[in-house]
User: What shape does this take?
Amino acid sequence: MSILADLMNSLIDRNYLRFSTVELDNRSLEDLIGDLLSARGEVSGMKMAHQVLDRYEGFTPDEKKSFFKLLRSRLDIDPKLVRQALDDYEAHPSKAHYAAFAATAEPKRQELIRRLNQTDGATHRLVKMRADLQKMARQESDLEVIDKDFKHLFESWFNRGFLVLRPISWQSPANILEKIIAYEAVHAINNWDELRRRLAPADRRCFAFFHPAMADEPLIFVEVALTKGIPSSIQSVLESDRSETPPKQADTAVFYSISNCQAGLAGISFGNSLIKQVVTDLSRSLPNLKNFVTLSPLPGFRKWAKSCDREEELLVSEQARALAAEYLLLAKGTGFLPLDPVARFHLGNGALIEAIHSQADLSDNGVAQSGSVMVNYLYDLGRLTANVEKYSSLQEVTASTSVKTLARQAQKRLETQTSRKSIHA
Amino acid sequence: MSILADLMNSLIDRNYLRFSTVELDNRSLEDLIGDLLSARGEVSGMKMAHQVLDRYEGFTPDEKKSFFKLLRSRLDIDPKLVRQALDDYEAHPSKAHYAAFAATAEPKRQELIRRLNQTDGATHRLVKMRADLQKMARQESDLEVIDKDFKHLFESWFNRGFLVLRPISWQSPANILEKIIAYEAVHAINNWDELRRRLAPADRRCFAFFHPAMADEPLIFVEVALTKGIPSSIQSVLESDRSETPPKQADTAVFYSISNCQAGLAGISFGNSLIKQVVTDLSRSLPNLKNFVTLSPLPGFRKWAKSCDREEELLVSEQARALAAEYLLLAKGTGFLPLDPVARFHLGNGALIEAIHSQADLSDNGVAQSGSVMVNYLYDLGRLTANVEKYSSLQEVTASTSVKTLARQAQKRLETQTSRKSIHA
Amino acid sequence: MSILADLMNSLIDRNYLRFSTVELDNRSLEDLIGDLLSARGEVSGMKMAHQVLDRYEGFTPDEKKSFFKLLRSRLDIDPKLVRQALDDYEAHPSKAHYAAFAATAEPKRQELIRRLNQTDGATHRLVKMRADLQKMARQESDLEVIDKDFKHLFESWFNRGFLVLRPISWQSPANILEKIIAYEAVHAINNWDELRRRLAPADRRCFAFFHPAMADEPLIFVEVALTKGIPSSIQSVLESDRSETPPKQADTAVFYSISNCQAGLAGISFGNSLIKQVVTDLSRSLPNLKNFVTLSPLPGFRKWAKSCDREEELLVSEQARALAAEYLLLAKGTGFLPLDPVARFHLGNGALIEAIHSQADLSDNGVAQSGSVMVNYLYDLGRLTANVEKYSSLQEVTASTSVKTLARQAQKRLETQTSRKSIHA
Amino acid sequence: MSILADLMNSLIDRNYLRFSTVELDNRSLEDLIGDLLSARGEVSGMKMAHQVLDRYEGFTPDEKKSFFKLLRSRLDIDPKLVRQALDDYEAHPSKAHYAAFAATAEPKRQELIRRLNQTDGATHRLVKMRADLQKMARQESDLEVIDKDFKHLFESWFNRGFLVLRPISWQSPANILEKIIAYEAVHAINNWDELRRRLAPADRRCFAFFHPAMADEPLIFVEVALTKGIPSSIQSVLESDRSETPPKQADTAVFYSISNCQAGLAGISFGNSLIKQVVTDLSRSLPNLKNFVTLSPLPGFRKWAKSCDREEELLVSEQARALAAEYLLLAKGTGFLPLDPVARFHLGNGALIEAIHSQADLSDNGVAQSGSVMVNYLYDLGRLTANVEKYSSLQEVTASTSVKTLARQAQKRLETQTSRKSIHA
Assistant: This one.
């Protein structure tokens, strides 16, 4: 086992080294990039890569934009060359012709990004570079093409097989924990005391995915509460003076917060297996756990209710629940998939809608977005695959009987009201 | 630091899991691959990937060949589609068109390989798959094209920035050490006692590159002896009853054996920075070290001498050294580069030829290939970049004055003999 | 978790340092010891301690004996002083008088041993010193008194609460594994291949106790086989071409070898909880395990049979089993405890005698000592405490019905034979 | 290395287990203690030990006192028995008589404490028990005798050779770091942001001693600032917007805060080698460091100045420095040692008084105790031993010339004033 611990320790040591600044020479950026792309020596290549990244990080927004424009214009594919190489390959499908085609069909900026990644610590720097790029591409659609190249490479680098799931606890290093505070996106953690309450109690767990080349940066994490029974509000989960449940007495694991950490990894799918793997790990260590559920917001619910002119129904708890059920089961967006993004995430993982609670999130944000309603998605390992199948091929949403009943109630009420309105009209 | 140790420990745990066999279903391989390529759910994709790898490993050589043929024929690019997408992109260089072009210009087998890599432990399995493929491609040149795809992906995955340099010692895990025994390619290690003699003494070091996704498999390793003065034969380095040099008294680090471990990673360059990084690490921990040299074979020397009809010169030690100098400095192959592959490796890294020794490797192999001659390449950190520059742009070989003098002696002898022969003729 | 890993890594680093030799000065040993005992500065004390240990290890056996004699004569208690201090304390039981009494009642050599232990790596050196001492004390009973002091301190230092149980596997460091080879005392491990067969298969386990101050030295270890059913011979457990049992299918854990590693820790009891803790750990990770048994030799059996003139019964398997049962149940030594030392160990831990097998150990040693018979002691966690109770207060040996029946058969045979003999006489 | 990391990880696992409560039975405490002392089975002994500790921790202060009284009265030595055993030993100094004497001369409560220590996590619980005891012994001097026994055992257990020095950083586990916040005794750390400023910057270091059986509890720690030049005030070291010194440019390591963490380890000396070892480690990793100094308070200075009626001199910076010099060099307490406890600590370690600064600690505490004066003690590795020697045998205080000059100035001023006063009188 040691070599592995060693291995990772050395990654840390490299972190120190990474900050050693390379002396900047006075080549133009364009020349430097050209030299890097043609460098044969690995060692001199690493030095140039280091320098490009250092320069980039010193850039103003305008200089960054120029840098991306350069990638766009000078390092794009050359259609003429591609066509020629393609003709050759079609005529004679040899290794040489294939290599020539592959070389021309891939824009040189991909090779540039790969070469930049050769220096220690580069991966995280490139992830942040893409975060910059995405912001700019919103205004300059011309740059979207480059983002596609970053995404293509990141999908390869952040391949699920390279990621490692690790527990995060109050024993974890402070430099990791401060990132949990910073990245928590669902129920804010305001300080170290609150963090401690999320991690230290015996009935709390937290897990994150890491990439070995960014070993002190979580990619995505999930917070878990062990409870007796399925909780019906986030208040009960987070209240500060609750009594702890001894883990051996808990029958339920509640995933009450999932946060993506790296803006620059948007669109790279690695979170899908997160909950499944956590469920597997928890089942093994705590065989008494029977239910694996989320306690999730419905971020688009209030907006949707308003758009249908049905906000009034939110005022009565029972009606709010029913309306939420209707929203989750019947409100569809692109591709006949549910409107709600959180619903899409969990249903796409094979979960089903188990229960809906009103007055369940009384925070400002919870009221504003979800009308204080929350939902439990249920992860039943034995049914995940079948659910995914139905969901992805037939867009069919799986839900418990009670949730379906709620949805029907909401529809009935709507019909009644509509007919009443039409009568009144 | 802990999270990293944890991180790697969990990789180990996954090693156990990896062997859990997935139940094979009765889809045809082709269908299975098709389903994997179209799978949306990450979880079901991982299961299918696992199954493809399991099936592959159970294949006979003929079945393996069929599998590769399938990749070749069914998952190649479609020139017609590429051309269409290229036209579209040229006409309207939008993100959508770019994405469409990129999707058609990359053969589907690359996506297949990436998806196979999503399961735990897959990376090493794919490396071994490529080793199979390379063997087959020697007979079936048709398959070379696929090898290009593997290589393309591996270059991205085994990016220098993802590798970790770790010391290997007698404290290292036995499952790693048995691989050092197996992979040592230069001076064979016959058993654990010999291994112990290479690793345990205070004046011995060993370093290897690892990839986090193959954490118990070294990729390349180098064995180092700490000595007083530069040794002139491998016998003196390896003799079993030598007296140890206290590390603080050593002034020289000798790299006497470098071995690549993974046939399936042939052509992926990550070894170039190995020695440089080891030199950096050793300098820091043992500031008294002044010389960093290899003690290297000349694997093509004897063959070349025979081809020039000059094997006789090997019989006299002094003449053998001179001939070796000539061989290293003047015998050229493709691209005006040195004929000798080991010379190409070290010169390409920026080392220079420091000294040449006869009677330096009396092993069967050493006599058969190198005529018992060995060479010290010198790594002088301050001069590496300049040397690489001269070598790669001008094909200029840097050597010490004494080595150059030796080469001149050999040439003089040749001229004399030639003229003598012509006189006698 | 990290700080702990760090913590232990630093113990390793200290191992390197420990070998840095301290310059020996030319004080006499006696002066040096005197100075060490009166040293106030911790730093100078550590230097002197280091020096005493270095000198000791360079001693000839005679010099070592003189050293121990010195401890015996010069650093013993002074009865006169003890008596005085005792009188004072009895008259005025103040802290000062108590301290004075404690100081005189403890021989100065105990303080010496404690001070010697202040240097890094000293604990193992002192353990080896005691091993020397024990050997000498067999001839020089005068030295036995010193051994008592070592034992007293070691019992405090090797307190069960300071020990750590760790799995040993094929992933363990080679420097630990070579000690497993060296220390295996029951079924010899002849080389690394045999070791690999004991550790690497999925159905094998090994556990050892370690002390943090001797982190690369196991104190005691146990080898475990996971099997279906309780095995009836060591051959079936160790045969090299057996097929592995998938751990999840095993119902039995067999403790087939337990070895003490440190002669210098003789008489320090820490092995008793070893098996119990391993049983607890295994039950947790493999809930399908139902039986926890040893497969143990009967080291005194053959000798005892000879002493009773009943060796003949060993020739017939069934009679051998019965005789072994009688031996284990009825042959008593000091304190009415079983004659057999291995029986005393397991019965003292609360195990019971479950089954007896003939032809079960065909090795030279197995035949010579145990007449090829082996025994399964059963560890039933629920009954351990009750068994210990009965055994230690009443000397009652717990055994299965079938073993008791066997013992009765042996006795019956003895009676029959005796009466027959008396008839013939 | 792995086994060690493993080893410590398992200590952590045990931490979890430790909290598993043992069911309390209804024996009286006295019976339970009696049973524990006579227990033969290690396993049942551990259970009883666990129970005694659990009961103790549930006690009211009065019950705790009764518990200690019990140890005092029932588990003390019996002078009659001691005398008898001593006579026997004197008459026949055999091993048996020695053992008998040793057994009677040691009070049974020592064996009790050792047995309590057999359970996991017991060491820290016993350390806290002694902290209780010490508080009570201040009122009940009768209990002081028991404290002596705890101290005797702790000196053995917390032997310098068992301790491990570890760096503490912002990468350390949060559960350790929260203890640094809690235990900081010199310059308070008020929250996590302040802690981060003490640990995260490149020019800050922190080191702590740990005991493996209390792996998540620091015993003593020191905070270090790397600076250019020796700082003359704590404000400059701690100011929040200072610019960081790149470690390679620093020439001085400043030990500006040293805190003991465990009240229950009072009087156990293990801090003496702390600074020496940190100096050694820092010198190795940062060879550019030339000065190793403390920046220390003079906790008894103001009180002493008042007692001499010389507080007025504190008003003028220069006079304050001179007076402080006089205080450190000439104000003596018990055994002719310096009055100031911090001075005693550093001088006892071999440091010398290098410089004295006024206006150096403007915190409430710094003004109240030290009159805002601080002192640099200098650790010069080459001179430590000689200094300790002079200090411990001759009570001679080593100081720089400038500090000696300051002290003379203060004395001269005193003489002048005295004579002036006498003239005026």
Q: What stands out?
A: The first helix of chain A runs from residue 2 to 18.
